[in-house]
Design goal:
The complex is a heterodimer of chains A (about 425) and B (about 550).
Chain A: H1 23-27, H2 40-53, H3 70-74, H4 81-93, H5 100-106, H6 108-117, H7 119-127, H8 129-139, H9 155-162, E1 172-177, H10 179-185, H11 187-199, E2 202-206, H12 215-219, H13 223-243, E3 247-250, H14 253-267, E4 278-280, H15 281-290, E5 304-309, H16 312-317, H17 320-328, E6 333-337, H18 356-373, E7 377-380, H19 383-393, E8 397-398, H20 400-407, H21 410-416
Parallel strand pairs in A: 1-2, 1-3, 3-4, 5-6, 5-7, 7-8
Chain B: H1 3-8, E1 10-16, H2 20-31, E2 36-39, E3 55-56, H3 60-63, H4 67-83, E4 88-89, E5 93-97, H5 104-116, E6 121-123, H6 125-131, E7 141-145, E8 148-150, H7 152-165, E9 169-171, E10 174-182, E11 185-193, E12 198-209, H8 215-221, E13 228-238, E14 246-249, E15 258-262, E16 265-269, E17 273-274, H9 287-300, E18 309-321, E19 331-332, E20 335-339, H10 340-344, E21 349-354, H11 360-375, H12 406-416, H13 428-431, E22 433-435, E23 440-441, H14 442-451, H15 457-464, H16 476-488, H17 491-509, H18 515-531, H19 534-546
Parallel strand pairs in B: 1-2, 1-12, 2-9, 5-14, 12-21
Antiparallel strand pairs in B: 3-8, 4-8, 5-7, 6-7, 10-11, 11-12, 13-16, 13-17, 13-18, 14-15, 15-16, 18-19, 20-21, 22-23
Helix pairs in contact in B: 2-7, 2-11, 4-5, 14-16, 16-17, 17-19
Classes of the chains: A alpha/beta (about 425), B alpha+beta (about 550).
């Protein structure tokens, strides 16, 4: 055979490597609850062959894909099944405008900025029954859903006023990609992170310019805007990682996954030079502890029983072990590791009226497991999983960083790490 | 009609050979009001018809060397675009000149095309790269010509369907063992029904030999001698399309210089080797052939070097010796229609051979003219104007697809054209996919089994593309066998059929069994042999049957 020929098959997203084993379809949370969705194998590599022949073979049911990436985790041939599906959705939506509802759901930061200004009003109004009914009927946002409450003060405002000036004093430094949820809805998580990082001797800094990572924009078909914002973020991250030698850490698994993996796969943003410099905070801290570089000391009287839920994108990165093992370092914590099942919300997916029932059906296995676990709260690295689990089980959900910060003996930790 | 009734009728014409030429002849005869029986020893389109590029030649390839063939091609090309719309994809084609080729040939080529009436536009290499991104970027010249892609299986079946709609009968798996001869007249055929193991005779006033390369043997049965020159060509199928246009080399025809996008795949070919007539049934592809095809193929589209090859196959061109050359060495390139009464003194016997798939309709017309002359039928040929079943107006459109399961329904429209309306799609079961690679539904399989002469999975594959995707039958063959077993109430036979279908798929994969194709085949073997014990089940069953 001619030299170097046929040594390997190269295809976009490895779709030629598919041997049709169908394992992906068996783990798909959507295919498990509805026959409307053809399943990842059909929607992905199988459909792709036909779409290469003629884009008209695009199947509208592909919009039911959660983009949870569980198919990719299961694939023994490393086919980027969900990427194929998302790319197909992208091509099919070219030239079409996203609906008002999708645009609103996707623009988490714009909505956040406006809502922060009028937080009490927004929170009260969004929670009112008439508002919910209007959103349900006009916007097709399901009435069962509650928008996460908006904070009166943005995280960045708090940070600049209360924390920024003391950060330079630490020996080590990281940048924090806080994301929209921390900034607009739940600054406490950001505060917990600053507390934790400071206690182990790390100063925390904001990026020069941070915009929404765009995970919701991608899911709702606003690719151009996502690409623009992504480029801004990567420019800031590049400065932090390459020029200032500060790793970038996050407290959201979806933001992390988006910055690291979806940027190149979906938005053609080249992040090769900084990808390794972006990490989830739990992974970053775990590695420091594991390398013996820092020590964590926890409160003696801390006692809780929590369940850990692996978010889909967390599973795709394979990083749940970092969060779990870090939590296990807390002596008083009784941690139940839940089976890996999708909660069904998938960002903005479950907010849409047409998806509500499917979303709850997908999550039902997880909800039952949580009920059976007899815990006081659930912990997970993803904020949208949090909303879904809180709404569906009634239990509070916390980020592992908040759990750690709560359990941490700050003074003892500072001493153990020789910080004055 | 039940098979026995078909045997007992007497026909105006019996056509031997279920390739596209036989089917086209059957259609023409039936449309002219003759009573017709077509017999085929295997399945329809198993010979040269089903073993070529699936290229609807514009004739450009022949323009320089054979102006007459070129003119026939372009004329039939334009006709097929009208009458066989659902079998044709109007892709257009490129004739590219590479740095090692003589650019001066382009001028000769374009002039020859123009004189044959073939549109041939010289385009800028940059423009060629834009309209066909898969093309070798090093090209120094390109000509755009009206080549297209055509599905020979669909074309053959559409011709047969039309023949049947006009009263014709057709039998596959019926081999001609001999001709009924009476005082220098051919009066019918002696058949062996391979499905039931029966020998029967059927009478007809004229027998048309449209058996392609096997026509030499049929002619011998009447004591007539035709010298065929089998020319073998091997081809490779890639797992998906890399090109959207046909890509040819702008030089004298040579090995592996045509790449055709066919439905979900693309096909590179061919080689060309003269072989002895005794070996025409040996279709194994050799390593040397695979090497040549790949080495030359990547010059047309470099990405073929890293694209999965799913299958290799070979076919035999039925070239025939010119009657006017006493040495028997010179080959006739065109259509050959022999009236054996004039040529050999055998009445009631006509051979139609030579030609190409592209000119099947014209061959059918010429053969039917000869039949009609014998029978005193004066009806005019209408096959050039009347659309084939499936290509009529009113194919189901976008709005007829259900919201769910649109994929399989759309694929079925691509395959059956307006006849897709006959496929059930009112419930979840009929819409369920049997073949996921090619989007074949339960409904489509039921339709094919009931309407399209399907006796086994190989027949079903040619009618529907079941098992033609990258998994080569791994998932669909079991489901399809089970459906056929249910429909025929013969589970044992379905199991045997499944085993032989998988064997048949493996034969084509074997010459290219490396990389992902090998992984695919091993998984299939692990499932069917290792997990399900199919080979044991079939072997044990075979022993039981013997006892």
């Amino acid at each position: 055979m001619a030299e170097r020929m046929q040594l390997c098959n190269i295809s976009v997203n490895n779709f030629e490597q598919c041997t049709k084993c169908s394992i992906c379809t068996t783990v798909c949370p959507v295919a498990a609850v509805t026959t409307d969705y053809p399943g990842p194998k059909q929607a992905g590599p199988d459909g792709e062959r036909y779409r290469l022949k003629d884009p008209a073979y695009y199947d509208k049911m592909l919009k039911l894909c959660l983009n949870c990436k569980r198919c990719e985790v299961a694939c023994p041939s490393d086919v980027h099944i969900a990427d194929i599906i998302q790319r197909a959705r992208m091509s099919a939506s070219e030239g079409k405008r996203a609906s008002l509802r999708d645009t609103m759901l996707a623009n988490t930061d714009l909505l956040g900025t406006m809502a922060n200004l009028v937080a009490p009003v927004a929170n009260a109004t969004l929670g009112l029954k008439p508002t919910k009914l209007v959103m349900d009927s006009i916007m097709a946002i399901d009435k069962h859903r509650t928008f996460p409450a908006y904070s009166r003060q943005k995280f960045t405002t708090w940070f600049k006023r209360n924390a920024a000036k003391e950060q330079d004093a630490y020996a080590h430094h990281v940048s924090y990609f806080h994301g929209c949820y921390v900034n607009y809805n739940f600054p406490k998580l950001g505060q917990d992170l600053v507390k934790l990082m400071n206690a182990i001797g790390y100063g925390v800094h904001l990026l020069d310019k941070e915009q929404c990572c765009g995970v919701a924009l991608i899911a709702n078909g606003l690719y151009k805007q996502a690409r623009r914002q992504g480029q801004t973020n990567i420019t800031s991250i590049r400065k932090s990682v390459n020029d200032d030698h500060r790793q970038v850490i996050t407290t959201s698994s979806s933001c992390t996954f988006n910055l690291r993996d979806e940027y190149p796969a979906m938005l053609d943003i080249d992040n090769k030079d900084v990808r390794d410099g972006i990490s989830l905070a739990t992974r970053f801290i775990y590695n420091l502890v594991d390398d013996g570089k820092v020590k964590l000391v926890f409160k003696q009287d801390y006692k809780r029983r929590l369940a850990y839920h692996t978010a889909c994108h967390m599973q795709r990165m394979g990083w749940q072990l970092f969060s779990i093992e870090l939590l296990r370092m807390i002596p008083g914590l009784d941690l139940v590791e839940l089976e890996q099942n999708c909660c069904g919300i998938s960002g903005t997916y479950g907010f849409k009226k047409e998806n509500y029932e499917r979303s709850q059906a997908i999550g039902s296995i997880l909800f039952k497991d949580i009920a059976d676990a007899q815990v006081e709260a659930v912990t997970t690295d993803c904020e949208t999983c949090k909303w879904q689990i809180e709404m569906s089980t009634g239990l509070p959900v916390e980020n592992p960083i908040s759990v750690l910060a709560d359990a941490l003996d700050v003074e003892a930790t500072r001493q153990a790490n020789n910080i004055n | 009609m039940v098979t026995e009734d078909i045997y007992n009728k007497e026909y105006d014409v019996i056509i031997v050979g279920g390739g596209v030429t036989g089917a086209g002849t059957a259609r023409d005869c039936a449309l002219r009001g003759l009573s017709v029986l077509l017999v085929e020893r295997n399945d329809y389109s198993t010979g040269a018809t089903g073993r070529n590029h699936g290229l609807m030649h514009s004739g450009a390839r022949y323009a320089v060397t054979d102006g007459e063939s070129a003119r026939e091609c372009i004329s039939e090309n334009m006709i097929l675009r009208r009458i066989a719309r659902h079998c044709v994809e109007e892709t257009d084609g490129l004739f590219i000149t590479l740095p090692e080729d003589d650019l001066a040939y382009q001028r000769t080529f374009v002039e020859a095309c123009q004189s044959a009436g073939i549109r041939a536009d010289i385009i800028d290499p940059e423009e060629a790269r834009r309209i066909e991104p898969a093309v070798n970027p090093d090209l120094i010249g390109a000509v755009r010509i009206p080549d297209a892609s055509i599905d020979p299986f669909r074309l053959t079946i559409a011709n047969l369907l039309d023949a049947r709609m006009h009263g014709a009968e057709a039998l596959n798996h019926h081999e001609v063992e001999g001709l009924i001869l009476n005082q220098g007249r051919v009066e019918g055929v002696k058949l062996f029904n391979k499905l039931k193991g029966e020998h029967v005779e059927v009478r007809g006033r004229v027998v048309v030999n449209a058996a392609g390369i096997w026509g030499q043997r049929i002619a011998e049965m009447a004591g007539c001698k035709i010298s065929m020159f089998p020319a073998r060509g091997a081809l490779l199928i890639f797992g998906h399309r890399v090109n959207q246009m046909v890509i040819n080399r702008c030089r004298k025809p040579a090995n592996a210089d045509i790449l055709v996008p066919d439905d979900t795949v693309c096909v590179i070919g061919t080689t060309s080797d003269r072989i002895p007539i005794e070996t025409v049934d040996d279709m194994r592809v050799t390593r040397e052939e695979v090497d040549i095809l790949l080495k030359e193929g990547i010059k047309l589209a470099p990405s073929l070097a890293t694209t999965r090859v799913i299958r290799a196959y070979a076919g035999v061109r039925p070239l025939v010796a010119s009657d006017d050359d006493p040495s028997g060495r010179s080959i006739s390139r065109g259509i050959v229609c022999l009236d054996h009464a004039k040529r050999d003194g055998v009445e009631g016997f006509i051979t139609i051979t030579g030609g190409k798939m592209m000119t099947y309709r014209l061959m059918g017309e010429i053969a039917t003219n000869a039949v009609c002359a014998k029978l005193g039928n004066t009806a005019a040929c209408v096959t050039a104007a009347q659309p084939l079943p499936g290509s009529e107006e009113g194919a189901p459109s976008q709005s007829d697809l259900t919201k769910r399961y649109s994929f399989g329904q759309r694929a079925a429209i691509g395959r059956h054209g307006s006849l897709a309306a006959r496929i059930e799609k009112d419930n979840d079961i009929d819409n369920a996919l049997v073949c996921e690679c090619e989007g074949v539904t339960v409904g489509e399989i039921k339709y094919a089994v009931q309407q399209l002469h399907v006796h086994n999975l190989v027949n079903l594959r040619r009618r529907t593309r079941v098992g033609m995707g990258t998994c080569q039958g791994k998932l669909c063959s079991c489901r399809a066998a089970s459906l056929m077993g249910e429909m025929s109430h013969d589970v044992k036979r379905a199991q045997q059929d499944l085993a032989s279908f998988l064997d048949e798929r493996w034969k084509g994969m074997r010459p290219v069994a490396w990389g992902d194709t090998l992984r695919e085949a091993q998984l299939t073997a692990a499932i069917y042999e290792g997990l399900c014990g199919l080979d044991m089940a079939v072997n044990t069953q075979g022993k039981e049957d013997q006892q």
